[in-house]
Amino acid sequence: MTSKIKPAKGAAYARIMGVGGYRPTRVVPNEEILKHIDSSDEWIRSRSGIATRHWAGPDETVAAMSVEAAGKAIADAGITPEQIGAVVVSTVSHFKQTPAIATEIAHKVGAGKPAAFDISAGCAGFGYGLTLAKGMITDGSAEYVLVIGVERLSDLTDLEDRATAFLFGDGAGAVVVGPGKEPAIGPTVWGSEGDKAETIKQTFGWDVYRRTPVPGGDGPDARVALDEIRYPAITQEGQAVFRWAVFEMAKVAQQALDAAGVSPDDLDVFIPHQANMRIIDSMVKTLKLPESVTVARDVETTGNTSAASIPLAMERLLATGQAKSGDTALVIGFGAGLVYAATVVTLP
């Protein structure tokens, strides 16, 4: 039987056209973290490479940070908001299951009536969103796609957890993906290892509340009152995550290079998820990257911003001149799930 469905008429290729970022105004040094845990600045730096991080204020919401980053990316791409055909937002720190925060962001940036949805893929979320955007462009369902990674992880940080209190930061990074004349976003190597999901997790679900009995009541029918409301926190098994990231993700990164037909010597830039400086340095060594390759180390002053970390690092490299338009970059994200996504891109 002959299909009656017309073939897609999308662009032959997709590319990143513009990038933007937003970091909250409040800078939090390690000294502030040390008020809550028994540690030292030297220990935090040696363990993670982090010296400072940005934490959002009351008005720096997930939506507000995203709108700021998106506006810069749209301007950098040289298009108008009305041309955006889809908005994809990756986040784990928007606390409403529905509606998707992407719909609010799409409206506030003036995008008209685009497709808009959220994805939850942790620190690999930007890679997932980028891959979806590429598919939309080549399929023809959108001409331009806005991809945003955004987090307020300070809301999900247990300041008394010595293993994680110093890790997380807030911020938003955005890119505009549009049609290209040549390959500029390579094949994505992505996947998950659900058997390791417990190594990075939320401490309890949103349906769990801390409650205390009302004075004077007892027994199974006693009335209860809400205790101080607390958000769950993100926790992880540090050593297990470190080993997985260093050894397994280096393999995934190499697979992405192979899929794109690019060798380490062809690379100009390496932008891994900004989780930990030791992980970054170990991956550079395992991949045997030449010294000429610029390596993103944004984690030192921004901390781990999960889905926002790769676009934020990309934006800073371009803004500071450490990378330039047209450079070939390997990007890889990995985190809770455990999930991962890696690809080779041409920088906007």
Automatic annotation (TrEMBL):
Q: What is this protein called?
A: Beta-ketoacyl-[acyl-carrier-protein] synthase III
SUPFAM superfamilies reported for this sequence: Thiolase-like
Q: Which family does it belong to?
A: Belongs to the thiolase-like superfamily. FabH family.
Task: Give GO BP annotations, semicolon-separated.
Answer: fatty acid biosynthetic process; secondary metabolite biosynthetic process
Q: Which GO terms describe its cellular component?
A: cytoplasm
Catalysed reaction, written as an equation: malonyl-[ACP] + acetyl-CoA + H(+) = 3-oxobutanoyl-[ACP] + CO2 + CoA
Q: Which residues form the Beta-ketoacyl-[acyl-carrier-protein] synthase III C-terminal domain?
A: 257-346
Taxonomic placement: Bacteria, Bacillati, Actinomycetota, Actinomycetes, Kitasatosporales
Reported EC number(s) for this entry are 2.3.1.180
Tell me which domain of life the UniProt entry assigns to the organism this sequence originates from: Bacteria
**Cytoplasm recorded as keyword:** yes
Q: Which CDD domains match?
A: KAS_III
Q: Which organism is it from?
A: Streptomyces paromomycinus (Streptomyces rimosus subsp. paromomycinus)
Q: Which NCBIfam families match?
A: fabH, PRK09352.1
Pathway, per UniProt? Lipid metabolism; fatty acid biosynthesis
